[in-house]
Amino acid sequence: MPDPIYRFDFYFDYFAGGCLWPADDVTWEQFGSGPVDTDSRINLPEHLLRRIKELDARLPESLNQNDPGGPSPWAAEEWQRFKTQADHLYEDILAALGPGFKITHEHDFYPSLHLQCSEIDYSPAQTALLERFEQTGVVVDTALLLLQTLVADWYALSKTAALAGMQVFADRYVRDFQKFNPGENIADYFSIQIDPDVEPSGQHISFEEFLGPGFDIRSDQLKLFSYNPQSRILYHSVTEGFAKALLDPPHSIGKPGDPADQEYLQQLTRELTQMLRDYLREILHLENLLETDHLVIYQWSDDWSNYFDAGKEWWGTFFWTVYDTRRQTVAVIGASATD
């Protein structure tokens, strides 16, 4: 059996300590999260490690410490000098490591005057899952964004992604309106607007807080509803968290059945739990819900867009950004609906 080929991305990040980052699951499992420049199994020559250390130490000088999301103190000439040296280093690393390593140079993965992100091309599995959920009655909106620039300020990054994600939702709404209402002017109807005078306000939360009380990570159990044997009614008492937003829309996604039937309750719980796990696996790339330290999650206010108006009637409003520090992507997740 031939030796495996390991794949890395090449770029410098602020205060990271290196420039080689595992780029697929096989490499990740073998080397960890990265950077892995000094790993003895890679065996980079000492003179290359010195050059990596020098560039890694220089990059933070490009950051405006008082305004991490603002313009860089480096002039264009300094940026070009840094990028040229990084390009030369990349070529030398390729020559030193040989054919057992495939390394992709992320040329554009450096700061610019403004934060930038764009919607990714969704995988077939992601597209199929989101379409299936929509047909089932799920009202959660999802936008997956790729970061095109770097900042050290996670809050600024996440706020930019929140605004960009809302714009994605707005653009989708317009496309759907035009598809199903040909010839109609959307200006005469509702459209998603972002208030230019109100900025989103975010709170950093844990993954457990993101899921909310509707799912217990430790016991691996859905706790979204309770059953009253006297009234034979399922009570959905949970009002917050992603499990609630995904699995308890205004019109239930549960199949018809008798809540008094224990078998029905068990089947419903299994199906809803599987839906939650499917979303977390395909959209957030999570297999183990106890291994989420690479995610940076913010919960956002609901006063900066009319997107939230419907949910304020009674069902609820939800908006999160989930920054994946491994993949440099942000999942923007929102929900706001009424009956």
Overall geometry: globular
Oligomer type: single chain
Order of helices and strands: EEHHHEEHEHEHEEEEHHEEE
Structural class, by secondary structure, is: alpha+beta
The whole-number mean of residue pLDDT values reads 87
Sheet of most strands: 6 strands, antiparallel
Note the beta-strand portion: 15-25%
**What is the distance, rounded to the nearest whole angstrom, between the alpha carbons of the first and last residues?**
59 Å
Instruction: Please provide the count of β strands.
Output: 13
What keywords describe this structure?
339 residues, alpha+beta, 2 domains, three-stranded mixed sheet, 8 helices, 34% helix
Q: Would you mind describing this structure in some detail?
A:
The protein has about 350 residues and is an alpha+beta fold. The chain folds into 2 domains: about 100 residues, no CATH class; about 220 residues, no CATH class. About 35% of the residues lie in helices and about 15% in strands. A 6-stranded antiparallel sheet has the order 4-5-13-12-11-6. A 3-stranded mixed sheet has the order 2-1-3. A hairpin with a 4-residue loop joins β12 and β13. α2 packs antiparallel against α3 and α4 runs antiparallel to α8. It is globular and about 75 Å long. The termini are far apart.
